[in-house]
Write a structure and sequence with these properties.
Strand content: 25-35%
Largest sheet: 10 strands, mixed
Structural class: alpha+beta
Oligomer: single chain
Distance between the termini: 19 Å
Number of strands: 19
Helix content: 25-40%
Number of helices: 8
Length: about 350
């Protein structure tokens, strides 16, 4: 578990909104090689890694890209108008620290995502103003007063804006961070690979890891899988919220999301596996959720599919899970795969 937490901290420290994932995939490839594997990169930039085993190929997929934003305009006063990448909640982005990463610059520039005219002592309607991408902007921590000043920094339209993850682990075992969706699962799967390698054993069937890089914008899992894939297990977040039973301490087994039901037999196999191994789990239906598993089926892959993952509270905001939920997810994968 300590290894998994260490990997989460390392992964969340690397900015990687969809389309800006090269650094984090390079890190992941290097870590898998350090563990003794031979990962490869697809043309799209996804990471594929053979963990061994024979027959009935299963793919454990998690996405390594995150939410973020992009500069759409440099305003006359030197502030930056931005557009969201993925479904980041505007209200949660207000007053957050960011890094603005010039496409051809040597270093990022720090700044803050603020409401336009954000001083309460100046703006009497501030409390009543809706937080959205027309009322939020980025203020750079540089001496800039106009477009020309910003241009001299090398910052411009099309540059990526990356939000501070603020990763922390409490003494009570709660893990709080942006982008637990889905870097928590990436860290967990690295932990699974580590435990497998150190055991000196092979999994009970052929197993691959697959880390996608465009999930948050809808086409991460559309290509790049091994040709012999039979089961696609998307290891993503489990949802915690009103109308759902999952908590942060459980592993969630999704029966259905917004794309429709998951494979009936595969879902039943996971539920039975959790029961037989006394793993704390919940079965839920996610009303506003999609994953790489659904995208793969839409792309034409003939596979069984499912989503499992540790329960995550406040998804797409400042998220929270618990070490117990992570461990229950790991136990379920290990028990199911053999």
């Amino acid at each position: 578990m300590q290894y998994i937490i260490d990997q989460l901290k390392a992964l969340t420290a690397i900015p990687s909104p969809s389309g800006f994932t090269k650094a984090v995939t390079q890190y992941t490839v290097a870590e898998l090689k350090r563990l003794g594997y031979e990962p490869t990169l697809t043309n799209k930039g996804c990471v594929l890694c053979d963990l061994g085993g024979e027959g009935n190929t299963a793919v454990l997929a998690a996405h390594i890209d995150t939410l973020g934003a992009m500069v759409t305009e440099v305003k006359g006063n030197g502030h930056l108008r931005i557009a969201n990448i993925g479904g980041i909640i505007p209200g949660s982005a207000d007053s957050e620290n960011v890094l603005v990463c010039p496409r051809f610059g040597e270093k990022p520039f720090s700044g803050t995502c603020h409401m336009v005219n954000p001083s309460k002592h100046v703006n009497k309607v501030l409390n009543d103003t809706i937080r959205d991408w027309t009322t939020l902007e980025v203020v750079l921590d540089e001496d800039v007063k106009c477009k020309e000043d910003v241009a001299k920094l090398g910052v411009g339209v099309g540059d990526f804006v990356c939000f501070d993850p603020r990763t922390t682990v409490t003494e009570s075992g709660y893990i709080k961070s942006r982008f637990l969706d889905d870097k928590m699962s990436v860290a967990l799967l690295l932990g699974y690979a580590k435990r497998l390698k150190e055991s000196g054993k092979q999994p009970g069937r052929k197993v691959y890891l697959f880390f996608t890089v465009y999930e948050e914008i809808g086409h991460g899992g559309a290509s790049g899988y091994p040709a012999d894939m039979k089961d696609l297990i998307a290891v993503d977040m489990g949802c915690v919220g009103e109308g759902l039973s999952c908590t942060e301490k459980q592993v969630s087994i999704a029966a259905k999301d917004s794309s429709g039901p998951f494979d009936f037999d595969l879902t039943n196999e996971f539920i039975r596996c959790a029961r037989e191994n006394n793993i704390d789990y919940a079965v839920d239906v996610y009303p506003y959720y999609s994953s790489d598993a659904a995208v793969a089926l839409c792309a034409g892959y003939d596979v069984r599919h499912i989503v499992v993952g540790q329960g995550v509270y406040a998804s797409h905001g400042y998220e929270r899970t618990h070490i117990d939920g992570v461990m229950n997810t790991l136990k379920l994968l290990e028990a199911y795969l053999g």
